[in-house]
Amino acid sequence: MMLAIHKLPVPVIAKVHGMATAAGCQLVAQCDLAVATDDASFATSGIQYGLFCSTPSVPLVRNVPAKVAMEMLLTGEFIDAQAALEQGLLNRVAAPDQLDAEVEKLVAAIVSKPRTAVAMGKAVVYQHRELGLDAAYQLAGQTMAANMMDADAQEGARAFAEKRQPAWKA
């Protein structure tokens, strides 16, 4: 399931209300975006029971600074939503009664963009972050060139020049 999240052409958003521990924290880190309530908390607590959270470490070290990930993994201690936001595990934090609305705002901001560009962008980000700098720029340039040939990208350029909102095909 964790690998499938990256392979999906649409962004996957984690919505957290409460505690996300071990595999739950892994899922939050694996998702493309994450929104949580201000009272949410996150931990890779397996170490407290003699089990290092090996699989949660994979997305965690790719989404928060290494020292933050290492502290979470080696202590099993919880971090609160504000710390998770500051360290990059979350994109947004909301009051519990505003969680759904905050997620909907994020969804609305994404679905208003062309599907092809969103899918292409998501894929290239995950591909190039595993490459060296030269290869990453080469891949990004190839992706940009392919994206520019897409009908929605051409519509976006026309709309910009004509000072109007684009009318996406999908």
From TrEMBL:
SUPFAM superfamilies named among the record's database cross-references: ClpP/crotonase (SSF52096)
Subcellular location: Mitochondrion
InterPro entries for the chain: ClpP/crotonase-like_dom_sf (IPR029045), Enoyl-CoA_hydra/iso (IPR001753), Enoyl-CoA_hydra_C (IPR014748), Mitochondrial_ECH-domain (IPR052377)
Record carries keyword Lyase: yes
Keywords linked to the UniProt accession: Fatty acid metabolism, Lipid metabolism, Lyase, Mitochondrion, Transit peptide
Listed GO MF terms: hydro-lyase activity
CDD domains referenced in this protein's UniProt entry, alphabetically: crotonase-like
GO CC term, one of those recorded: mitochondrion
Keyword Mitochondrion listed: yes
GO terms for biological process, alphabetical: fatty acid metabolic process
Pfam families: ECH_1 (PF00378)
PANTHER family, sorted: ENOYL-COA HYDRATASE DOMAIN-CONTAINING PROTEIN 3, MITOCHONDRIAL, PTHR43602
Role this protein plays: May play a role in fatty acid biosynthesis and insulin sensitivity.
Name by which UniProt lists this protein: Enoyl-CoA hydratase domain-containing protein 3, mitochondrial
